Amino acid sequence: MKRLKPSSLINFVYRPIELVSDTLERKLGMASVVIISLSAMLGSGLFVLPALAMLDMGGGTTPVAGIWLAYLVAALIVLPGALSKGELATAMPSSGGSYVYVERTFGPLFGTIAGLGLWANFMLKSAFALIGFKAYLVVLESILGISIDIEIAALILLAMIVGINILGLKRIKKVQTPIVLISVIFLFMLCMWAIFTMDLDWGVPFSKAAFGSGWQSVAQTSAFVFVAYAGVTKIAAVGGEIKNPSRNIPYGIIISLIISCLLYVSISIVMVATLDPSGYMDGNKASEDPIYIFAKEVGGSTIGVIAAILAITTMTSMALAGIMASSRFPFAMARDNLLPEALENVHPKYQTPHLSILLTGIAMAAAITWLPVHDIAKLASGFKIMIFIVINMCVIVLRRASKTHSWYNPDWKSPLYPYVQMFGIIGGFILIYLMGSKAIIGATACCIMGLLIYYTYGKSRANPTLTPWRTVRTEFTNSDKHEREKRWLVFHTAAAKHSHPDCLNEGEFVHAMSIIAPQYDSFHVRNMFHEIDTNADGVIDVDEFLEGIEEQIDEQE
After folding, report:
1. 92-107 in b/e burial notation, b at 16+ Cβ within 10 A?
2. pLDDT at residue 433 above 60?
């Protein structure tokens, strides 16, 4: 084996992974997990997307009724990412979500790209909700006979939401869950009303013509509606407050995904069975208020007004929570020295990342002012698919590197590994390709922006660490370097668990060697320790460790 000097690893910094915090009260059970996850999903996916998806599946010219299948296929592609996120969350139950998983697995470069992608996804999803607010406000404007500048009203609402987030009024966030639940119950009752009181044409959503040009149309629209499931794994970000996280996080994510899929599929079927897809169009464009049209058809004008009011309330609450979530990504990246330090600053009075919130609000204002609603939905879906692909990759890399990176020890593991993850990765790439040039351009722009930010700002400031991705990569490209870096990491992992993080005693050395060279018995390893500890002080530092075991193992070989 080629000899390497201990100084060859001097640029690496050992950073232990956050353990579960004991300061947070674990008070969220399974029901709370499911409700929080559903409240992050159900909103624009029901109130805005259906008519846009009908037109998208029809090729942009003629709306078709088979969108229920697109929602179902999208859920199947989401499932691997949801399972992977459940596993990652039980390994890092208080770490803070997808950005941290990606950054800890692949390092700061990938973390920068993922952080920007997550920020863009949540920001665009919130902008999409405000566009829904605008559409349903138009309905109330015509019904009440008043004149409202819709664009100005949306921007005023955005400014209020930004202000509320800066003020840190946490109680308002708690209102989101009952609002969404009331909206879902209303839609469910509306569907039941339609089924029992109207003459529905069940052949419409299941006919051959309902699926446009076939599987390609279904797959393309599945990619388009992917944003409807964007919040399925949001609960992982508050893993430190969940009781029995090894059970409640993964199964809560799976249950909420199943419930949301059933809602999307069943409601979209009843909508097109009640009213032909052409009824959800506004001339040559898809209507952005399909639930109002559906409710008015089923229950008349009064029920339509109730639906519009619920839609406005739901969209507002989603935008409120969305800005809060998206603004945390620039904040976390600044904390890791990947973005300017100013974004990490918190307001001296309200203790919120006010500059990060303002940045997110400005980006949302630009999106709702200049981007068409169809493009916003497509970009948001594209970014989310990209993140789910990377999350699946994280599990594959971490499983492969777990012997060296022993901190990765999830309490719950995704079934059918790695086939589930490979299905999610391949399916995600297919969906991005089928979405067309705009989604690909959006994902590429995010990657280029991440590269520019990292190489012009973050690289010189981020602490270089031995990531699981580097461990897996060097395993195949440079076996000597892989083995030495593995030993370096095992040393620091063993030492960090004790009060003397710069050296190992005999017992810790035995534990480290059980990972590095499990073929040696404890008697042999203890003799090896005393051979390496030349000054007989009872401990060895990292240089003694690396040089000593290299000499000892080389002699054995």
Report:
1. bbbbbbbbbbbbbbbb
2. yes
